[in-house]
């Protein structure tokens, strides 16, 4: 999981905003809670998977810009404070970060299955505590090593 995150974190986002927030669900209790919020066909996949990653989009991402974009944080915070800007930016860039996560997992030789079909509000309430992060997407299950390798160097 650390290797996946360490690869994906280098993917660029608008103004380095990085609005995705990741919850790595590994425990039996967490998987059961998440499966209870998923579409019927997805429940067994979540329960069987070693890990499920929930990707939420933090609408308060601009608060982190002094750390992520120190030379232009104030100007970009004002820009993202405009009507609808935080929502559209978080959705676009958080989804992009989800794609980076898939590519990183695949580069490390892991199978993954992105899915939708869940109770968004229920997942928000159950798994995101700091902010009201709208969950737009979650990526699911690394069941096994894939036979596909990007390169010999990508093997962990």
TrEMBL record:
One of its GO terms (molecular function) is oxidoreductase activity. It comes from the Bacteria. Pfam families: Nitroreductase. Residues 3-127 form the Nitroreductase domain. PANTHER family: MALONIC SEMIALDEHYDE REDUCTASE RUTE-RELATED. This is Nitroreductase domain-containing protein.
């Amino acid at each position: 999981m650390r290797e996946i995150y360490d690869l994906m974190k280098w993917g660029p986002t608008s103004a380095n905003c990085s609005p995705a927030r990741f919850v790595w669900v590994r425990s039996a209790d967490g998987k059961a809670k998440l499966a209870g919020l998923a579409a019927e066909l997805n429940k067994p996949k979540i329960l069987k998977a070693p890990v499920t990653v929930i990707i939420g989009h933090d609408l308060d991402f601009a608060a982190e810009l002094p750390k992520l974009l120190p030379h232009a944080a104030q100007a970009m915070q004002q820009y993202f404070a405009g009507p609808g800007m935080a929502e559209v930016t978080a959705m676009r860039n958080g989804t992009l970060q989800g794609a980076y996560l898939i590519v990183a997992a695949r580069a490390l030789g892991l199978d993954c299955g992105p899915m939708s079909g869940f109770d968004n509000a229920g997942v928000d309430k159950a798994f995101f505590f700091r902010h009201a992060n709208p969950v737009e997407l979650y990526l699911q299950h690394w069941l096994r090593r894939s036979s596909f390798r990007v390169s010999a160097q990508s093997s962990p």
